[in-house]
Amino acid sequence: MGGLCSRWRRGPSASLDSRNLRNAVSDDLGHSHGALRPSPTTYFEDEKVEIPITADDESFSFRKLWAFTGPGFLMSIAYLDPGNIESDLQSGAVAQYRLLWVLLLSTVLGLMMQRLAARLGVVTGMHLAQLCYKHYPRVPRILLWVMVEIAIIGSDMQEVIGTAIAINLLSNKMIPLWGGVIITIADTFSFLTLDRYGLRKLEAFFGLLITVMAVSFGYEYIVVAPDQGELVEGMFLPWCSGCDKKALLQAVGIVGAIIMPHNLYLHSALVKSRVVNRHHRREVREANKYYFIETCVALFVSFLINVFVTSVFAHGLFGVTNGEARSNCIARNISADLFDNIFPNNTEPVDASLYTGGVFLGCQFGAIAMYIWAIGILAAGQSSTMTGTYAGQFVMEGFLNLTWVRWKRVFLTRSIAIIPCFLIAMLKSIDDLSGMNDLLNAIMSLQLPFALLPAITFSASPAIMGEFRITRILSTLLSISVVGVNIYFVVEYVHAKLPGHWLVMSGVWMFSVLYVIFCLYLTFHMLVAFGMSCCGQIPLCGTGVLLHYDEDSEEYRRLLPDASIAYGSRNPEEAHVSLQTDPFYEECEEINFLSAVNSHDFHEESAYKWASRNLERNPLTMCDSDDDSDDMTRMFWSGSTRPFLISFDH
């Protein structure tokens, strides 16, 4: 309290505008008990984008939409990483246009999940990893961190693979795959220098990379000219006539490739880059509205790009054999070094991958098509690398309350990702390297519950989100559908790919049991957040978990940081306390805070001692306060996730 008191004790001549005052309060809250103080170097924490004020705040404003534009497009890059691009082309090669409806449904599910993440960041002022740090015990929190880090490293490996393949194609194989893997180290660190140019320029650069992908894959779409009738039918007819088990597994794999677990942690942190007064209900609603519109636009763009890729290979590769593809390459006088090892002279269907897809386009439509394809893959790999870097830093700082310099974080993650990719590129074939994407998609599908379940838990908790919490039905359907589909994909992949040796199966079963137990624990947390107090009767863990989401519990009040501002009452010992439970009390900033700055009767320390003692002893009660009464003085008690306004009647 002392640090804050010294800041406010300025006397009647003090002058602070409302925005500076709000930022000062936010800074001091970082020092309070139980609160996380974010690093000032993390994603332009000290360079937030101002939101313009319009004449009619209730109407739609393109100026405000532009100010909020950025986080959604950065998030959408995860829907366009090399793993997604390979899943798209495999979908087209295996089932033609018949799985486009799965792509559409997956994107809609992703939109719903990203909305949860964005609302968490806007309403609470904390990103998902920070909320996990506050509400989960140490051991589950560390396990969550490990699982999310595995997902980030898996995504980074896909970016390494995509970039290496793109460099190999662009150089006509003059740069070997292992050389492309090494180059990814240098280009990653070079892109980190973009930080120095500011937040908006960095967001514009990501927009440029998305544009490069749209132009590259859009060019392929125009050149190939797929059947528009079959495309529309495949997109809106939820059926897959004549599909075999391989097509079914591919359909489930689309969901696993589209919905990335670490992307929820990333999006919940990116939305904090705008100046939003969380204590004003109108500003919070406005931020949620514009962020949702931006997310819809960004994911629509990513969906179109994914449709371009799927349609190109649905038209060109579906039903094509290796012998037919080889004949096309020979007819185009393509160098045998490019296709000899990937298109053997047989009647087997082409095994679609990032590399074979590029070579096929070159053989079918000329070298320019192959080079443009490689440019699109390169843009996908580079953009995903940058967003993965930010996601990793947010996750580490949130779960461990640990700040690392970004280049050290990148060096560690990229080193772990490069080692297996480099070894496979050196010792194995291009098919083995490109085929790793399937394994990595399965690994990231396994990690999805460790992002989705915490996000739903906090989004459904009235103690955390207040009126902005989601309904139980929506959250339950979302969690069951997404997690169920992904687990099915992993089970089928393990059954098809792993050897049936008893040692391997024993390890798989042991991991599966531990995995299910941890998922059940997270589900238990979610049910408690839903308000199922009966879960508190479960031995060992029930009561402890219940206290984290019960507003009337001593444990929940213990999680609140110390009182941040108290003023005005000459005799707080005799004051009557009333609690305004609305976390978006409209008058806090304009009246209460500014009058605090200019108050001659400033007795915050005695009021703080009174409030601390009484709030620990007495249950919190709800009652109305007189907003316009001159004989009412107030203290602003800021909680970890929601503020309380305590009024002292004279």
Automatic annotation (TrEMBL):
HAMAP family: NRAMP. Keywords: Membrane, Transmembrane, Transmembrane helix, Transport. It comes from Notodromas monacha. PANTHER family: NATURAL RESISTANCE-ASSOCIATED MACROPHAGE PROTEIN 2, SOLUTE CARRIER PROTEIN FAMILY 11 MEMBER. It is found in: Membrane. Belongs to the NRAMP family. GO terms for molecular function: cadmium ion transmembrane transporter activity; iron ion transmembrane transporter activity; manganese ion transmembrane transporter activity. This is Protein Malvolio. The chain crosses the membrane at residues 100-122, 175-192, 204-222, 247-270, 291-318, 354-380, 411-430, 442-461, 473-491, 503-524. NCBIfam families: nramp (TIGR01197), Nramp_1 (NF037982). It is a multi-pass membrane protein. GO terms for cellular component: endosome membrane; plasma membrane. Signal peptide: none annotated.
